[in-house]
């Protein structure tokens, strides 16, 4: 078998990828203004399901961009999500990315309360009293806890990116957060991941350039 | 709509997820000995395509486990992949995870040679003369470079985990590496990612317990 490589300059690889994605999406209907986010999720996963499963609350994209512009910081539920976010671009506006999952006090609180560390790390974020953007790519328990904190009036985030992945309470946690009266970007169903969480944040950052 | 959460203890979530995956895979034929890797990729992505697209060279799982046991280190092509690997478990055997993508000399070499940084970081790894495990979850150019280095006799890895994701030369890069006479674990086609690269390494580590 002859394997032929396409000759694309390094700087053009991403643009060429987005061309292919746009071509293959064809006439598939996307919500105006959300296209760069949907396409970047497909770019990150090579999975066209994201054209169907991504859900956006009203005006969430402009809300998110305003928040970032005004220096909002981002809380993730994994170090992987943290690693994937373009921290240099975020820092231009004053924001940082925080992940409390490896913190000693989070491990202790989780043990004491019989919760996941993800729950304890959302509690820690809430206790800081700052208005954050949450990017949850792994733990449905984190998303459920955000729902509870918001409903109890203990947390008021700019928005919640709710894209945990998996099989136990993942589907439900996403339906809950879409019912929480908080701006959201959610990948409905089982799919998502830390990479998807990071790429949604990055898509927002790249839309601001 | 009533949203009901399944009551699963934090410590049991992963086991319950694997039960569901096993149930839904049903009688789907997997290569004996590779099941924990395939199932962990599905666990990480909620994408059952990995049951079909993962390719393993002969005895690669036992080869990989032996290499890790003997202290092999891992080179990734993203900081996200690095972040996702269980470094504590790997350290038990003496291995570390290295990612050269943010190194200054790599950025300079890429610029000088008109390559991607991923290519330059593979060259840097090769120049170290160490027998590594490569875990490529993002850049097909990295995988193509590994193929060239192996064919030119400049690199002799323990194995290559080849799971870049995307649309430009991704499919081809994986076919090349499977043709390179190196032990491999490859996700054939467009799918993969840094999360998948990390989870394959973790699956190997958890099989060793």
TrEMBL record, chains A, B:
Domain of life of the native organism: Bacteria
Keywords: Cobalamin biosynthesis, Isomerase
InterPro entries from the UniProt entry: Cbl_synth_CobH/CbiC, CobH/CbiC_sf
Database matches in SUPFAM superfamilies: Precorrin-8X methylmutase CbiC/CobH
Domain Cobalamin biosynthesis precorrin-8X methylmutase CobH/CbiC: 12-207
Pathway assignment: Cofactor biosynthesis; adenosylcobalamin biosynthesis
Pfam families membership: CbiC (PF02570)
Stated family: Belongs to the CobH/CbiC family.
PANTHER family membership: COBALT-PRECORRIN-8 METHYLMUTASE
Protein name: Precorrin-8X methylmutase
UniProt organism field: Anaerostipes hominis (ex Liu et al. 2021)
């Amino acid at each position: 078998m002859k394997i032929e490589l396409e000759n694309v300059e390094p700087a053009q690889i991403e643009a060429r990828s987005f061309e292919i994605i746009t071509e293959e999406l064809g006439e598939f209907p996307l919500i105006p203004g959300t296209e760069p986010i949907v396409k970047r999720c497909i770019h990150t996963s090579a999975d066209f399901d994201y054209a169907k499963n991504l859900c956006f609350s009203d005006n969430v994209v402009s809300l998110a961009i305003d928040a970032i512009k005004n220096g909002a910081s981002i809380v993730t539920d994994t170090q992987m999500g943290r690693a994937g976010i373009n921290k240099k671009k975020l820092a231009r506006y004053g924001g940082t990315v925080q992940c409390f999952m490896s913190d000693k006090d989070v491990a202790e609180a989780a043990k004491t309360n019989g919760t996941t560390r993800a729950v304890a790390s959302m509690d820690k974020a809430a206790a800081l009293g700052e208005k954050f953007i949450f990017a949850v790519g792994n733990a449905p328990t984190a998303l459920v806890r955000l729902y509870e904190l918001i409903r109890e009036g203990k947390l008021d985030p700019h928005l919640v990116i709710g894209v945990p992945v998996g099989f136990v309470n993942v589907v439900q946690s996403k339906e809950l957060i879409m019912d929480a009266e908080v701006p959201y970007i959610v990948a409905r169903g089982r799919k998502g991941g830390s990479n998807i969480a990071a790429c949604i944040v990055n898509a927002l950052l790249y839309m601001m350039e």
